[in-house]
């Protein structure tokens, strides 16, 4: 519910008030110099300055033409690129247009009035997991797109879509033209289980791919999951993604028809034979990663029953009473279960605990078609089984053999977390990647760090030395790993943006820009574009997205839906050709 998030509103008000109160600080004086440049380029600058645009005061209705503005800016740069740094706008590249990128852009534009942000996105369309991850039956979560659209209305913001940094456009092409690069490209892969059968057997899917498929992500347009081979689905992992997948499988397909779910997914879900979904965790209820709202939604699905959780898995009454409020409410909800009668329900689901998948199996009758999953049973550390961090160990029978159980399954999803990878060429611009943690190493404030023995460095608690890599930053899932909701990502992106603003203002001492003085063209995208076009990379603008958006909504209107997403990049680009 970010669109009406009181924290956001309060923060926004505070920022506006601070801007008014600040008076003629050095940064404002610099801003005024930059504003004078913008004003000389386009007299409408004052009308569409970001701070004025933010609150529907009519300014956002002005038709703005970023390409003309940008190319005028580039003329200015060509004349003045060797000028003292503060005499031209700071150019910041943001890689990725999900919540981390947009919230960082919002904060940067609000706090550094002399910054111009170029946001690169591999798809022609923005918003990352808000568009392609958040479940279609959670439209209120997507309200943050309105905030992001307000950010994009700033004349100091450029959206550069359809440009994949790495393989398609080498990262080093950005470097000479920017003062800072912020990586917020999320976690585009997922973790595997590494068990026999995971790759070889049919009807085994990654939840990430399935989510992308039902949300219309072009990469997974052709996943074509077969939901017709039997009644039993098993999902491994007990996070909110697992619950999203379970809910989509269990929902009445008619309830999804009006959402923005992909049309191809609706077709397949309408044919689905799945009637029973098991969401399986390796630890206990107190250690599960899901949250109460998502559990409640599943428990309230019409005509879907829930298998009661064995009482001995939940904390006893006295331990339950002593739990912090949020955990207590979740445990009470799990203990209460669903009121839907299994006798009349058409589908059912369960949460199964203390089971680790060992291997996937097929029956001799249908080679390579999944028939059951073998699990080994676990036990929680008996010293404190209700601790959220409690670990498990394998359970053994009195014979000394491992305790195992087979669970029938026709369709299988692994939902054990997303994973970030290094963009190809990160190392060319000196950015390390921690493959173990799946993050870009950083100082917690989003400044990219590298091990160091010399220079201006800091000592970590383990005694090792790190140094900041000037002008390089990260935010969101690639900064802290693939966990956290949009609000967490917002806070995290604000932290990184504050670090950039502080560094740009020189508060961290010299050498905090990507290039040494006089070695940056300051041209941003205008400097990068010729090289991109030579490589056959053709960018889309925010205006292009607005056309795609309008076309999707129009097709959706004809189908009685919020929107019908184009499932292929070519279909999106066709809209722009028409
Ligand atoms: C299935 C799912 C459902 C979720 N549902 C909710 C929910 O209901 N509520 C909630 O609060 N949170 C939800 N979340 C969490 C939320 O989506 C994340 O906190 C947030 O999206 C992380 O933001 P990000 O910007 O780091 O990454 P992302 O949102 O993944 O954005 C990264 C962007 O970078 C782009 N990109 C990647 N590589 C490149 C490249 N090489 N060049 C250019 N661009 C690139 C991607 O296309 C993408 O647009 C959900 C997450 C998932 C996985
Ligand atoms: N509606 C929403 O608000 C919403 C919706 C979707 C996602 N999100 C957010 O997006 C983030 C990512 O969600 P997620 O579900 O992908 O990740 P997650 O919350 O980290 O959950 C991952 C789950 O996988 C399990 N797991 C990991 N490795 C495993 C293994 N080898 N074998 C068995 N189980 C394993 C974990 O169990 P252990 O704890 O035992 O490791 C955990 O239950 C979360 O912060 C989530 O809240 C929010």
From TrEMBL:
Keywords: Electron transport, FAD, Flavoprotein, Mitochondrion, NADP, Oxidoreductase, Transit peptide, Transport
Major enzyme class: oxidoreductase
InterPro entries linked to this entry: FAD/NAD-bd_sf, FAD/NAD-binding_dom, Ferredox_Rdtase, Ferredox_Rdtase_adrenod
A single GO cellular-component term on record: mitochondrion
Domain FAD/NAD(P)-binding: 90-249
Reaction(s) this enzyme catalyzes, per UniProt: 2 reduced [adrenodoxin] + NADP(+) + H(+) = 2 oxidized [adrenodoxin] + NADPH
Residues binding FAD: 100, 121, 129, 165, 477, 484-486
Signal peptide span: none
EC number: 1.18.1.6
Binding-site residues, NADP(+): 238-241, 282-283, 294, 484
KW Acetylation (keyword) present: no
Taxonomic superkingdom: Eukaryota
Cofactor dependency: FAD
SUPFAM superfamilies: FAD/NAD(P)-binding domain (SSF51905), Nucleotide-binding domain (SSF51971)
Annotated compartments: Mitochondrion
GO MF entry, a single one: oxidoreductase activity
Record has Mitochondrion as a keyword: yes
Similarity comment: family membership: Belongs to the ferredoxin--NADP reductase type 1 family.
Protein name: NADPH:adrenodoxin oxidoreductase, mitochondrial
Protein species of origin: Aspergillus nanangensis
